[in-house]
Design brief:
Layout: H1 2-20, H2 27-41, E1 53-58, E2 62-63, E3 72-74, E4 77-79, E5 82-85, E6 89-94, E7 99-108, E8 121-127, E9 130-134, E10 145-150, E11 156-163, E12 173-182
Antiparallel strand pairs: 1-6, 2-5, 3-4, 5-12, 6-11, 7-10, 7-12, 8-9, 8-11
Length: about 190
């Protein structure tokens, strides 16, 4: 009788494995594994470019939109591309190769909350821990401002939005059409 219960117990333990099916490995995963083995055991250096990435170090960041997929609006201009900070924050950007310039249009997002007059912020861009751009205090009525920062071959930089001195309510900031040109001429 006891072995019957063991058998039933074992069958119930194995059901999830039958349901899951076989695990398949993609071609890209095979290539990555071969590169890793070649680098670790054969001393072959991987010469591929680094993959670009962004790390949110403080606050929240939304790409190409603001909350609930509403477009970013600075003044009366709508931006379909860019970076939205719904609150003060800090974003570290890593590039695939040396950078040449960073471009964006900055301003407070023109929306229901900011139209009430709340919100002020200071925008900043740092390269290699050196601040290369810092705005004056920006409010909703402040005209949009074009930003161009020389990256000087750096492979990363930091975008930062800080409170303008009146608390963080309404500090919803946009970096419209944010883009980077690389030293090799690519965007």
């Amino acid at each position: 009788m006891r072995s019957k219960y063991r058998l039933i117990f074992i069958v119930f333990l194995l059901i999830p494995f039958w349901e899951a099916g076989a695990i398949s490995v993609s071609d890209q995963e095979h290539k990555n594994a071969r590169r890793w083995v070649a680098a670790k055991f054969q001393g072959i250096t991987d010469t591929r470019q680094n993959s670009p990435y962004m790390i949110v170090e403080r606050g929240t960041v939304i790409k190409n939109t603001r909350y609930f997929d509403y477009p970013m609006i600075i003044g009366q201009t709508q931006y379909d591309r860019g970076i939205h900070f719904p609150e003060p924050g800090r974003l570290r950007v890593s590039l695939p190769s040396p950078g040449h310039k960073f471009f964006a249009t900055i301003g407070l997002d023109n929306n229901e909350e900011t139209k009430s007059g709340v919100g002020s912020a200071v925008f900043a861009v740092s390269v290699s821990e050196e601040e290369r751009f810092r705005s004056e205090v920006v409010r909703l009525e402040t005209p949009e401002q074009s930003v161009q920062v020389n990256l000087g071959g750096a492979t990363g930089f930091v975008l930062e939005v800080n409170d303008g001195g009146d608390g963080k309510q309404g500090d919803q900031c946009d970096w419209g059409n944010a883009r980077v040109t690389l030293a090799d001429g690519c965007d």
